[in-house]
Every structure is written in C-alpha cells, then in structure tokens.
Amino acid sequence: MTGSFYASALEIAVSVVLLAAMVTLWRRSVRAIVRSLAVQGFGLATVAAVLGFHLGDPGLLVVAALVLGAKAVVIPYLLTRLVRVDPGSRETQPLVNVPASLVAAGALTFLAFAATRSVTAVVPSIAGRLIPVGLASMLVGFFAMFTRRKAVSQIVGLLLVDNGVALVAFLATSGVPLLVELGASLDVVLAVVVLQVLAVQLRTRLGAFDLDQLTELHD
Amino acid sequence: MLTLLLAIPALCAVVYAVVPWRRALGWLGTAAAAAVLVLGVVVSVGAVNRPAVTGLSGVLRADALSAFMVVVIGVIAVLATWQSVRYLDHEIARGASTRRHASVYGLLVQGFLATMLLAVLAANLGVLWIAVEATTVVTTFLVGHRRTRTALEASWKYIVICSVGIALAFLGTVLVYLAALHSGVHGQNPLNWTTLVQESHRLNPGVMRLAFSLLVLGYGTKVGLAPMHSWLPDAHSQAPAPVSALMSGVLLSVAFYAVLRFKVIADGALGPDFARTLLVVVGLLSLVVAASLLLTQHDYKRMLAYSSMEHMGLIALGAAAGTPLAIAAVLLHILGHGLAKGVLFLASGEVLLTEGTSEIDRVPALLSRRPVLGGIFGFGLLALLGFPPFSLFVTELNMARAEFQVGLGWAAALSILCMAVIFAALVSHGRRLLLGRGEKEQRQSTARLVAIPLIGGLAGCVFIGISAWPLATLLSAAARIVAL
Amino acid sequence: MNASLLAGEALAAVVQVVALALGAPVLLGLMRKVRAHFEGRVGQPVVQPLRDLRKLFRKERMRPDQATWIFPAAPVVLVATVAVAGAISPLVTTRPALGGSADLFALVYLLLIGSTVLALAGMDSGTAFGGMGASRAVTIGALAEPALLVTILALSFGAHSSNLPAIVQATVLHPEILATPQRLFSLGALVVVVVAESGRLPVDNPATHLELTMIHEAMILEYAGPDLALVTVGEAMRLALLLGILVNVVAPWGVGAADSLPAIALGVVALAVKVTAAGVALAVFEVFTAKMRLFRLPELLAGAFMLGVLAVVSGLVVR
Predict the structure, then answer these.
(1) What range does the domain containing C304 cover?
(2) What pLDDT, in 10s, does the model give residues A50-94?
(3) Is pLDDT at C257 greater than 70 in this prediction?
(4) DSSP helix/strand/coil, B386
(5) Which pLDDT band holds residue B414 (cuts at 50, 70, 90)?
(6) Nearest Cα to A187, choosing from A81, A70, A64?
(7) Per-residue model confidence (pLDDT) at position A209
(8) Could you tell me which of A13, A198, B211 has the C-alpha nearest to residue C179?
(9) Is there a contact between B159 and A173 if contact means CB atoms under 8 Å apart?
(10) Does any CB of chain A come closer than 8 Å to the CB of residue C305?
(11) Chain B partners within 8 Å of A158 (Cβ)
(12) What is the pLDDT, as a whole number, of residue C51?
C-alpha cells in the first residue's frame, strides 16, 4: 500500500465514522439512524483493515473482520428487530431540535480537538492526527444519549460512544491486544442484547419505548 | 489454583443452567461461595510476602491485594448466596417467580461472582476492563429480576449509565496503552500491570493525566462516585436484597480496586499530587451528595445505597492520602463496609419480604415487633456509623489520621463534617424505623436460618475491628503494593 | 500584461456570459424533458424555454399599480448581477477577465444581491403571495448562508485562497486533493446549498401551481411579459452558473488555462457536457424526491452546515 493511498484511505474511512455519527443527530427516522450506525461500524472496520494492511499486521485484519461482523451486521440487525417490535417509535423526538443539535455537534468536534492535544502530540503519524475524530464521535454519542429519549436512540448513542473509543484505540495504538479486543467486542454485543431484552420488557410495561416515562425513581 | 478459583462459580453457573431448579440447588451457590472463600484464604496465605502467583498462562495473577479482594468477595458472597435461598423460596411461593427464573437468578449470581473474581485476578488491565464491563452485563438482569416497572427502570438506568462510564474507562485504558507503547515498553504484553508499574516513570505525563482522569471518571461510575452516581440508589433499591448486598458490599469495591491499580501507575508517572487531587475532589463531592440526599430519604433501601456512596467517598479520600497506613485502612474499610452493608441489605430484604414496603414511615417500631431482625438492623446501622467496636470505627479513624499526616487535613475536616450530617440523618431515620411501641400480638420471631449469617457477619465486623490479627500481615503486604 | 492576453481574457468572459444566457434556458428545457421522460410523457421540446422567452419579450409590459421603482428594477439587477458573476467565474477558463476579483465570498454576495432585490420586489408588489414567497425565500437564503460560508472556508484550505479561479487551478494541478474528506464533505454541502439556492426539489418545487406551497414562484407571481422573461432568464442563468461552479470545483477537467480560441472552444464544450450531466442528474434526483415540509428545511440546511463544519475539521486535521 503506497503512502498517499494509505493516507487518503484512512482519512476517508475516519471521516465516514464521524459523518455517520453526525447523521444520527440529523435524521429523525430511527431506521435511518440504525443504518448510519451500521455505516459507522463499516467505517470503523475499514479503518482497522487499512491500518492492518499498512502495518502488515494480520491480527488487525482479524479485528477488522470482527468489528465488521459485530458493529456493522449483528448489532444493527438486533436494533432493526427492536424497531420492528414497536412501530410507534419510528421517529425520534429530540429534546434539542435538529439544527441546534448539529451546531452543538460541531462545537463538540472542536472541543475534541482541544482535549486531545496532549495525545496527538505523542503520536506524530497520520493516524495520530485523526485521533480527535474518535473523541468527537464519542462526544456526539454522549450528546445523543442526553437529548434523545427513545430507547433505541439511547442504545445508538451508547454505541456511538463505544465506536468513538474504538476508533481512538485503532488510531492511537493500532488497536488494543487481540485478547482485549475480543473480550471488548463480546461485552458490547452482550450489552446490546441485554439492552434489547430490557427494552422489550419495558415496552410491555410502559406500552412504548419512550424513556420520558421512566420517572418513578428519583429523590 | 487461580484457574480453579474462577472455575468454581463458572461450573456452578453451568449446573444452574442445565439442572432444573429445586430448593436444594440454592445451597449449591452457597457452597461455591464458601469454596471461593476457602481458596481465597489459601491464596492469601501463599501471597503474603512472596512473589505474585500467576495462572492460566499469565492471564491471571494474584498478589496480596488481589488475594485480599478475593477474600472480601468470598465473605460477602457466602452471606448473599445464603440469603438468596430464602429470597427465591419467597418469590416462588408468592408466584412472582417461576422455577426458570430461579435458575436464571442462580446462574447470574454465579456469573457475577466469576466476573468479579476475574476482575481482581486479571494480570492485564485490558482483561480487568472486560471483567468490570461484564459485571454490568451480568447484573443488569439481576437488578431487574423482580421485573416490576421500577425494577426495569432501575436496570435500564444502571446499564446505560455504567456502560457509558465504562466506555470512558476503556478510553483511559487505551491511553495508558498508548503511553506504554510510546515509552518503548516491550515484552509480550504492554498492558500487564507489573510491566506498567515498572515502567511508570517513563510514561508520557500529558497522556497519563488525561488517561487517569478518564479512568477515575469511568471506573468511578461503577464505584458510585459523584458525578456519575445517579444509577446507584435506583439499582440498589430495586435489586433483590442479596444482589444489593453483593453490589454494594463488593462490586463497588471491585471497581475501586481498578482505580487503585491505576493509581499506582499514575503515581509513578505523575507523582502523587495528581491522583491525590482528583480522588479528593471526587471523594468529597460524593460525600456532599450523599449527605444532602440522605437527609430527606424516605426509603430505607435507598438510604443504605446513599450510605454506600458515602463510604466509597471516604475510601477515595483514604486512597488519596495513599500512605501505607491509609491504604491498609482503606482495604480493611472495604471489608468492614462490605460486611456491615451486606448484613444491612440482607436484613432490609427480610424486612421488605415481611412488611411489603421499603418506606421508612410504614415500617414503625421494628425493634419491638421483631426484636432479632430489628436488633440486627440497629447494630448494622451502628456499625455503618462507625461506632466502636465495629471495624469501621478503626478504619475511619486511621484514614482521617493518614489524611492529616499528608496535609489533607482540610479534606478530612470536611469529610468529618459530612459524616456528622450523615450521622444525624441515619440516626433519625433509624429511630423512626426501629423505635416506638408495637402491638404485642404483632410480635414475630425471625427464622434462625436468616438470623445466623447476619449475626455472624456483624460479629465478623466486630472481630476485625478488635483484632486485625488474621489479616494484619496480608493487609500490610497489600498496602505496600499500592502505597506511595 | 500585454494586449493580446487582455483581449483573450475579455473574449473568454464574453463567451462565458453568452454561453450562460443561451445555455441556461436550454438546460432548463433539458431538465424538464428528463422529468417528462421518467414520468412517461413526451414533454416539451428542449428549446421550449427559449421560445417562451421570445414570446414573453414581445408581450406588453404589465405592472401592479402600487409597485414602486423596485419592481421593474429587480429583474434587471438580477440579470446584471448573475451576468457579472458569470463573467468573472472560472467556467471555461481558469483565467477569466477580472478573475482576481472572483473571490468566493464576493461571488456569493454578488448572487445574493439578485435574490435580495427579487425578494424586495415580491413584497413591493403588495400581494399576499408575494410577501409570503419573499419571506420564505429569505428564510431559506439565511439558513443556507452559514453553510455556504463554512464550505467556502473548507474549500479555501486546499488552495490557500478563497479565490475561485485559484481553487479550480489548484484542483487542476493536484487532482489528488479531490479524494480528501474535506473536498468530499464540502461537495455534499455545496450540493445541498445549490439545490436550496436555486429553488429545486426537495426545497422548492419549480413546477408547482399550488400557491400555498410555492416559495420562489409565489415571489414572482406578479411579473408578466418582458419582466417575467428577465426574471426567468436570470434564474436559469443562476442555476446554470451554480452548477457550473460546482462541476468545476469537483471535476475541473477541460477548464483551459490559456485564452486562445481553441482552448476557449474546448472549455465551452467541456462546460456544456459537465453542466448537462449535472443538470440531468439533478433532474433525475428530483423525479424521485418529494418536496420537504417547510418546517423541516432548517434540518436539511443544518445538515449542509454540519457537512461544511466537517469539511473544515478534516481540513484542519489533514492540513
């Protein structure tokens, strides 16, 4: 893989991750949000694969396949099934309207740059310069979790955070050791399964996936 | 040996998954917990003043600190699994649970134990993270086991907030890994704790500062430290009593154990001040939040949950001091708090079973109506408040002493102020719950099976408070690992 | 600068304006034809807009009684600003006359003068629909503007200049910057902005006859005869100009650097091909798109803004 091709392939894959994160704030249709999550998973897997080819590391290619399977196929599939269970939750009603969310996401992106200065200073490579993007995706995920009140969109927010962290891991350290990556992916998939089951149980209790009804426990 | 330690609860979980539920099977979990405790003692004896034991081709590793945590897990697990039998009996009897649910409960509790053991035995900080995340996944269904609306709400909040927190901790772990790679740490695994401690002085301070902040925030979520504590009262109040006991008594401390491990690395890379400042801030913040919310509490399980938050804040302050004395006190406090809080949650579960409500004002005069249970609850509260001869008195005193020694006197003073508020709050709530005149004919006895482990737990708390003899060498060995 | 070069540049500028003026109505006709084809109709001939214009120019001048001088002035201003913008933009050559003044910011506000005057004229006519259309058009313009400005900022990173000919030239010299995320994002943002500014679906339906959903058509409802012809020409030229700039930023091939006659001829052909392709693509897209609710438009344009921000961000990262 030649240097400039590597650089632009990596840049584009990383941009796809960030773009997909933004699109989850932009779209209202839950299905579209889940789709863009799948796209983000695909972008993440591409990042791993590009790095793997560049470094000649077969372990990273395995990780890429793993990420592709877990985050671009299995998890979106689980979420799609969840959407199908409840036709009433096809659209999100964000607490913060879409344009304001997007402006906030832009601000968060710049914040991510400021916050990672100490890290990017350590990693002078092309990949290292892209680290803030991972943090930005993470912050967008937080934002989505705080402002979206549907169960599915909250799960999506959680996964955005997770993907952002994974992206930082790939870019900063070419991925954590394989054992850790395996365990981490398994944990994430299991967490999504648990969340899915919980969401279905909640729906049978509340009649909707609307988390605004979760107000009984407070001080 | 270490593999066996993990295999016991894992095998027990498999049994629960395969064999259909019957009552006797409930005691199997207790047996497994007891076996873990025994093995934990054996490992402790082996770990004192000797190099760390490793297992499973280097994935597992036990030094004095790990061994101590295994013992803590074992002790509380015995109490909790003992009480689980009664909880399941009751749930099945009133038709709220089927036999299948009981099996799932047994399976998840054993899985919970296994993941906690993996967390404290992990040699690799990545594996530690996986294990702590796995505890969240496993316990979510335990929190929601009663499947009421509030229980589901609590478990949703629990998994969402904790997953976010733990994602931050993963980012922190990744950054530590980055710092390690960048400083040229070699060896087959740069995430191994021992390697990292040896090389800690070479780690990039800028990266480590960000990393440790994220780790404290992330694992702090699972410890129940402010500002990401909001899941804690909900989950602890809604979970079945034995699960609350395990979560409050050990899970919080296991998460704090992760913070302690990283603190050693951060101290090496940044000097003691950074970690100290951070821990003082989160510790004091947690104390203030706990104190303010305890004042107006109406629910005795939530009251206990906020008290856990208070004690985690105290432990964070103790760890901030970081002297050997302080760390030994922190560890003993973990055990003492685990015992007292475990007993209290189990007792509160018994109260909930018989009284049917967790509101303080609707359970008056417990002491006169149910002397044994009320007595246990009362003594448990006294232990929690740090009365001698309970061990929490000794440890709180020593932590405060250590804080004064390292110039954290102001923090100690503030913490004592918060504790005074909490003292007043708990005494007033306890008085409403326990004292008063009950109707004579309502007087009930408490099943001996229930009372024995609870009284045993309180006795243990007194015993380690009077004489730290069986633990002294283990504690000092463990403290040397973490202390500055 | 010698005289022949100056003459060449002047020639190029004249060619650009003429090509725009003649080509734009044909482009409009082509897009209608494409749409008709997909809807299973035969449709009008491609040159029908030109014939309509000829007819309109021959008609009598009709103006509302209450209208002030703004109403007749607006079409002239519109056409004039678009023609100037067309003359200085790098459409067939990267070195049009006065290309040095074709700063993107200047271009944007030059085009904005036309839109603003038209909106004023819409209100000047004194009818309800005129005012409504004007208010809607201004709303969309105001929302599109931040997106456009951020996008221009991102585009200027590659060329170290916000001068449009310089940007196009830099792209000709270094085609690899086309594959950078910042260019891809800015392209996405530009497409949305161009669609919004030229009043196409899903922002506005140019073929609507339902006054309540109209934006642009409502604004010019009172125009008739030669005035309407001018407005139509101006609007068509603006669409063609925006598409032309867009294609030259994305695919600057065939844009000559020399001002010789063959180079200009080649440039005109290349421009015609590319703009036609872009127009057909836009028309096809419109066939499959429904008009968006007006209240959802801010979200669409915020999306464009977000893309612009992303473009800036990736420009900062990649450098």
Answers:
(1) 3-318
(2) 998 888 888 888 889 988 998 899 999 988 888 887 766 667 777
(3) no
(4) coil
(5) very high
(6) A70
(7) 63
(8) A13
(9) no
(10) yes
(11) 160, 163-164, 167
(12) 92
Task: Name the neighbours of B, counting chains with at least 3 Cβ pairs within 8 A.
Answer: A
Identify whether the C-beta of residue B235 lies closer than 8 Å to the C-beta of residue B105.
Answer: no
pLDDT digits (tens, 9 = 90+) for A166-186: 898 888 887 777 777 877 888
Which residue from A158, A177, A201 is facing B164, i.e. has the nearest CB? A158
Residue among C25, C32, C48, C47 at smallest CA distance from C287:
C32
Of C176, C305, C318, the CB nearest to A102: C305
Gap between the Cα atoms of B240 and B141, Å rounded: 11
Interchain CB distance below 8 Å, A22 and C179: no
Pair of tokens at residue B416: 């004592």
Q: Which of A122, A186, A201 sits opposite B152 (nearest CB)?
A: A201
Contact A176 B173 (CB under 8 A): yes
Taking the alpha carbons at both ends of chain C, their separation in whole angstroms is 34
Asked if pLDDT for residue C319 goes beyond 60, the answer is no
Q: Shortest CB distance from C180 goes to which of A11, A113, A132?
A: A11
ipTM: 0.92
Cβ C189 vs Cβ C304: under 8 Å: yes
Judge whether A166 and A135 are in contact, CB under 8 Å: no
The tens digit of pLDDT for each residue in C124-144 reads: 888 888 888 888 888 888 888
Confidence of residue C2 (pLDDT cuts 50, 70, 90): low
> What percentage of chain B has pLDDT greater than the value 90?
49
How many domains would you assign to chain C?
1
Mean pLDDT of C250-278: 82
Give per-residue pLDDT as tens, B101-125: 889 999 999 999 999 999 999 999 9
| Cross-chain residue pair A110–C313, CB shorter than 8 Å | yes
Assess contact for B249 and B305: CB atoms under 8 A. Answer: no
- How crowded is the C-beta side of B19, counted as CA atoms within 13 Å? 14
A187–B130 C-beta distance less than 8 A: yes
- Which among B135, B150, B278, B288 has a CA at the least distance from the CA of B216? B278
Joined together, the tokens standing for residue A164 give 């952002």
Task: Please count the other Cβ atoms lying within 10 Å of the Cβ belonging to residue C210.
Answer: 9
Helices (H), B251-299: 252-270, 272-295
Split at pLDDT 50, 70, 90, the class of C199 is: confident
Residue A155 distance to chain C (closest CA, Å): 22
Cβ pair A102:C185 closer than 8 A: no
Is C303's Cβ below 8 Å from some Cβ in A?
yes
**From the CB of residue B385, how many other CB atoms can be counted at a distance below 10 Å?**
19
Q: Could you tell me if B207 lies within 8 Å of chain A, comparing CB atoms?
A: yes
Alpha-carbon distance values, C202 to B168, C28, C296 (Å) = 41, 17, 10
Contact B124, B191 (CB under 8 A): yes
Residues of chain B positioned with their CB less than 8 A from the CB of A214: 153, 156-157
- Rounded CA-CA distance B301/C279 in Å is 68
Name the closest residue on chain C to residue A129, using Cα atoms.
Answer: C317
What pLDDT does B99 receive? Answer: 84
Q: Do B and A count as touching (3 or more CB pairs closer than 8 A)?
A: yes
- Is C79:C57 a contact under the CB 8 Å cutoff? no
Highest mean pLDDT among A2-6, B144-148, C49-53: C49-53
Contact (CB<8Å) A118/B209: yes
The answer, for A136 touching chain C at a CB cutoff of 8 Å, is yes
* A185/C contact by beta carbon, under 8 A: no
Confidence (pLDDT) at A87: 67
Task: Map tokens 């395990």 to a residue.
Answer: B246
Is residue B354 less than 8 Å (CB to CB) from chain A? Answer: no
Q: Band of the pLDDT at B11, cuts 50, 70, 90?
A: very high
Residues 6 or more apart whose Cβ sits within 8 Å of residue B201 = B268, B269
